Amino acid sequence: MTVIRTPNDRSLDRARICNNMSFQSLLAWTVTYRNIGESNATLRYHQRAHTGEKPYSCGLCAARFVSREHWRLHQRVHSGERPYCCGVCGLRFAQKPALNRHYI
């Protein structure tokens, strides 16, 4: 992990890490999530944004994914599953955000 210091700043609380979190924020995040047991998995997920790693691949097409959840949602493209239904018109959607946009 590369820590980039801001000009004329010697304190770590103002340093920037990967342009997403300050050191102070990262420390607070680590303390908050360490006991929950999510920090390692969440950190690995975040690191994939920098490495380009996409360990989950679709067996039916060339698509690759950063998370198992994104892979699972993609499978609906091939299966045709549309579990979210509009209560007004009955139109069905593969993902809940699409249903929410439909209501707007």
From TrEMBL:
Record-level Gene Ontology MF annotations: DNA-binding transcription factor activity, RNA polymerase II-specific; zinc ion binding
Domain C2H2-type: 56-83, 84-104
One term under GO cellular component: nucleus
SMART domains: ZnF_C2H2 (SM00355)
Compartment(s): Nucleus
Keywords from the UniProt entry: Metal-binding, Nucleus, Repeat, Zinc, Zinc-finger
Name of a matching Pfam family: zf-C2H2
SUPFAM superfamilies found in the cross-reference section: beta-beta-alpha zinc fingers
Name the UniProt record assigns to this protein: Jg24638 protein
Organism name: Pararge aegeria aegeria
Taxonomic lineage from the root: Eukaryota, Metazoa, Ecdysozoa, Arthropoda, Hexapoda
GN (gene name): jg24638
